[in-house]
Write a structure and sequence with these properties.
The complex is a heterodimer of chains A (80) and B (386).
Chain A (H helix, E strand, L loop, with lengths): L1 E6 L1 H7 L3 E5 L3 H12 L1 H7 L3 E4 L2 E2 L12 E5 L6
Parallel strand pairs in A: 1-5
Antiparallel strand pairs in A: 1-2, 3-4, 3-5
Chain B lengths: L14 H6 L1 H4 L5 H10 L1 E5 L5 H11 L3 E5 L24 H12 L4 E5 L8 H5 L4 E4 L4 H14 L3 E7 L2 E7 L7 H4 L12 H4 L5 H18 L8 E6 L4 E6 L15 H5 L4 H7 L3 E2 L1 H9 L5 E4 L3 H6 L6 E2 L2 H5 L13 E4 L4 H12 L5 E4 L2 H9 L7
Classes of the chains: A alpha+beta (80), B alpha/beta (386).
Chain lengths: 80, 386
């Protein structure tokens, strides 16, 4: 399925792109694919990230992604 | 999301107050009604640091009648690059008192209440109870989850902001009407994964950008005007100079928050010593698997407790509980002639042990980020997690 991936903050810096289209059947496939595509720096950031699938948490990473789904990749930080 | 006003209007404004707030009063959406609501509002700022500074100063100037400050720290010279509520003459003073003096200088009509204590599960509900709205400007994950959960339990809106280097995130959480912080970040990142501003730095003026948005959202919530950030996360990139807004929905499968927990354990707070030991001596479970597959000669030590080892373990791991190693009793069981790889459940305890055994002379040692939990979720998914 073609999904839109949007990277934010440190994930955007590590991926080198803000938004991209990817083909993946599930969230876990997608995470593997983007880690392979963008390299170890993004892979490390991804271990701390929250993934919003159309705005909500995905509890089952093996659930099918519908075509046109938007996945937001958000690294947490707690500075204040 | 548009919401009704959070606060009832105060009875009246004095002549002095009318003069002071005239630029608000002539905005039709605010007017006398909105200004009286601000006067009656009680806002609590958690932290009088980078974000707390602009939040408190602007809310004071805006005429919020009561401002509470939770802060136990003292002003350090390194704070002055961004914490503009404090000045050079405040270095060494209590931050709460320094912030109060600045607020009084900006607006003597504000009632300032100081809570000079470290927020924890025992005091948070009592401190929050009297306020209409909480604004979060703390600097660690444990306190952020604590603040979120307390706001959920007390049904308070929570204006959240977070900064790091050139990046900012800001949102409004209010469980009754929309998502809470756990709908965005259900669990904290692995300990030691995300550097703090003290470790990674922060652009000083970023505090103003994010803090000003927090103060804006507080004013809107109090007066009931406009569309708040409830249900949306705003992400700011100072280098690209972009604001991106994304939708955040309530997690339909999210665990309900029914009480407070031990937030330091939840967030895996590690000591500075352990963080230093783990820097450059941390491997991922994938790297551990690669070492195994390549037939490398090393000793894998599991530092959890025997009952945990029984639940799930990594093949080949030898159990030596943390306390045995920290006390020095079991150091003789460690090999002198090959590399040592430590792991625990999530990587907190193994980092502590790593610091201890490095001090004891075992230099060729690393620990596994994410521990057996990461192993069970990434390498061998047939294994249980607990």
């Amino acid at each position: 399925m073609t999904v839109t991936v949007r990277y934010f903050a440190g994930a955007r810096a590590a991926a080198g792109v803000e938004t991209e289209a990817r083909t993946a059947a599930t969230l876990e496939d997608l995470v593997r694919e983007i880690a392979d595509a963008h390299g170890p720096r993004l892979e490390k950031v991804l271990t701390a990230c929250s993934f919003l699938v159309d705005g909500a948490q995905a509890h089952d990473p093996s659930a099918a992604l519908a075509p046109g789904t938007v996945v937001d990749v958000l690294p947490p930080f707690a500075g204040g | 999301m548009s919401l009704p006003p959070l606060v009832e209007p105060a009875a009246d404004l004095s002549i002095d107050e009318v003069r002071r707030y005239s630029r608000h009063l002539i905005i039709p959406d605010v007017g006398m009604d909105g200004q009286k609501r601000l006067k009656n509002a009680k806002v609590l700022a958690v932290g009088a640091g980078g974000l707390g500074s602009p939040v408190l100063m602007y809310l004071a100037a805006a005429g919020v009648g009561t401002l509470g400050i939770v802060e136990f720290d003292t002003v350090d010279e390194s704070n002055l690059q961004r914490q503009i509520i404090h000045g050079a003459s405040d270095v060494g003073r209590s931050k709460a008192e320094s912030a109060r003096d600045s607020i009084k200088e900006i607006n003597p009509y504000v009632d300032v209440r100081l809570h000079e204590t470290r927020l924890d599960s025992d005091n948070v509900l009592d401190i929050f109870r009297d306020y209409d709205l909480i604004v979060d400007g703390t600097d660690n994950f444990a306190t952020r989850y604590l603040v979120n959960d307390a706001c959920v339990l007390l049904d308070k809106p929570y204006v959240w902001g977070s900064i790091y280097r050139f990046d900012g995130q800001v949102s409004v959480f209010w469980n009754e009407h929309g998502p809470n912080y756990r709908d965005l970040y259900p669990v904290p990142p692995p300990p030691g994964m995300v550097p703090s501003c003290a470790e990674g730095g922060v652009l000083g003026v970023l505090c103003a950008t994010i803090g000003a948005i927090q103060a804006t959202e507080a004013v809107k919530l109090i007066t009931g005007i406009g569309e708040t950030l409830l249900g949306r996360l705003m992400v700011y990139d100072a280098l690209e100079m972009t604001f991106r807004t994304i939708k955040v929905r309530k997690d339909p499968e999210g665990e309900p928050i029914t009480g407070l927990i031990d937030y330091e354990t939840f967030c895996g707070v590690v000591s500075t010593e352990a963080q230093e030991a783990a820097a450059g001596a941390t491997i991922t479970v994938d790297e551990l698997k690669d070492m195994m597959d390549a037939g490398k000669d090393f000793e894998l030590i599991d530092v959890r407790e025997p009952n945990e080892y029984e639940i799930v373990s990594i093949p080949g791991a030898k159990l030596i509980p943390k306390d045995e190693l920290l006390s020095g009793r079991a150091l003789s069981q460690l090999p002198q002639d090959k590399p040592i790889v430590l792991h625990c459940k999530t990587g907190v305890r193994s980092a502590e042990v790593l610091a201890a055994i490095k001090n004891a002379g075992f230099k060729d040692a690393v620990h596994v980020q994410g521990g057996v939990t990461a192993w069970a979720t990434r390498i061998d998914k047939a294994l249980p997690t607990y």
